[in-house]
Structure formats: C-alpha cells, structure tokens
Amino acid sequence: MADFLRKTRIPAAVLVCALCVLPSACSSTQNQSDDDKLTMPETSSNFEGEHYEDVVTRLESSGFTNITTRKQEDLITGWLTKDGETESVSVNGRTNFSTTDEFDRDAKIVVTYHTFPSDDTEDEDVKNDETNSSSEEKEEVQRNDKHESDEDKKTVSSQETATQDKAAMETITVSNNPDLAALLNGSDSGPEVKSFAEKYRGRTIEFDGYTAAVQPHEGYNTRFDYLILAGDNGSAKGPSFRFTNVNYADLHLSDDAPDTFGVGLNIHVKAKVLEYDSSTTWFELEPVEISMR
Length: 293
Prior knowledge:
Radius of gyration: 45 Å
Strand content: 25-35%
CATH class of the largest domain: Mainly Beta
Number of domains: 2
Largest sheet: 5 strands, mixed, barrel
Low-confidence stretches: 12-33
Mean pLDDT: 83
Helix content: 25-40%
Distance between the termini: 130 Å
Order of helices and strands: HHEHHEEEEHHHEEEEE
C-alpha cells in the first residue's frame, strides 16, 4: 500500500475516504432497488369482509399507488353481507397472496366490494373501474354471445337430429311416402326399383299384398321362399317381393292366420327393406308383421 501511495501520489487520507464512501453508495443503490418492491399489509383472506375504504387506506399507507375499486351490486337486504364489504382484492389479477409476496409499487390492485344496486348515480371509483375494465367487459360479452350462439346451434342441431331420427323410425306407407306409392304401381324391375331399395334400405314399409307363390327353401320341409306381390290376389304390379328362407314363426303372423300359410292369401305386409337383385329381379324383404285381410 505504501509503495502504491508513493507511485500514485494520492494522499492516504483521500484514499481511505474513497474506500469508505464506495460501500455506502452501493448500499444506497441496493436500498433504492429494494424500495421498488412492496409486500402486502395483509393476506388476501384477511382483506375479505373488511370495509373497502379501510382496505384502500391500508394499501395506500403501504406505498401502493395504482388502486381502483369495483362495486358488485348484489345486495338485497344487507343483513348477512354489509354495504361496502370487501369481496376480494386482486393484484395483477391474483386474488390469493400472503404478506411475504412482493409486488411492484405500481402493481394494478382492484378492490371489489358488495353494495346495493344503484339507479342513476355512480360513484367515482366505479367510473374509474369501468374505464380500466371496459375492454375486459367487452371481451366477456363477446365470449357470452359466442357461447349463446353455439348453444343455439347445438339446440337446433339436436332438434334436427331428433326429427331425422323420428323420420327414420317411421313406417313407410303409400299415404306418407310417394316413392312407395309409385313403386307399388310401377314395373317389377328397373333402375327406379333399385333406387328405392338403396334409398330405403333398413327402413320398414307397409302395404297390401298377397302370396303369389310358395316353395320349400333348398329342399327343406319347414323353411320356405315366399313371392309377395302388391294388391289383391291375381293382380300383377310392382316388384317381386320375396321372403327368403323363413319358417312359420319368422313370418310373425297375426292370430287369425291359417295353419297353412299358402298361395292366394290376401295379406297386409309390414316388412324391412333388405336389397334388390337386378339379375334376378328379386326384392328381398324381412317380415316384421303379417296380418290377414
């Protein structure tokens, strides 16, 4: 040190003072930085239930500078919850904090409190809060509108689906379906027959017809193939409907059906559409219910 002083010609007293001042300056800078951060005087839960004006005063006394209030006009009698009672305190959007959490001096603090609905007058703090939260409210309204629109679409879609399901379950008759009426009065083959079979596959149709032919199925004694034509016995119009490989029970006959279900019987047919074979012109049906006419 002595050699250093001789070489630099700096008086020792001056150097000592400089060394003493340096830590103080550093300490002052550090304290100034620490002063930009503040801790809460109370936890978030302790603020709840206090009068909002007292909460604002305590926050301002702690050094916070950006405090607004928001009233929640939900009181009716004021018996359980008092007018002006704090609902919540949020700091930069946080509503849960403790006395050890640090925040900037200018952190955005919103004190929400309960009050009675107002008619024409507004408190100045509400005006300030509305200015600060107007954009948030607009976004919330837009979200609610979109949600309601989506819900409306879902309701309409559900109603349409229910209508479609009901239509799919409805039995097709000549009175409620022009396609079936045209089919039964048309030819026994052709593209219109195939189109009907493909369009209504799996649906149940109902019409008046008769047993035009019966034969054992592939040599069996208890299983048969039935040719069913539309109209009364002896008519020849519409497709060649067929019940293939069925027994007596499969026909689901009414109680007044004869013991032998043979040729020439006028019947009322209720059956499910299976398929149409263009090469054989057979229109396959699955019997649902057969009754006598």
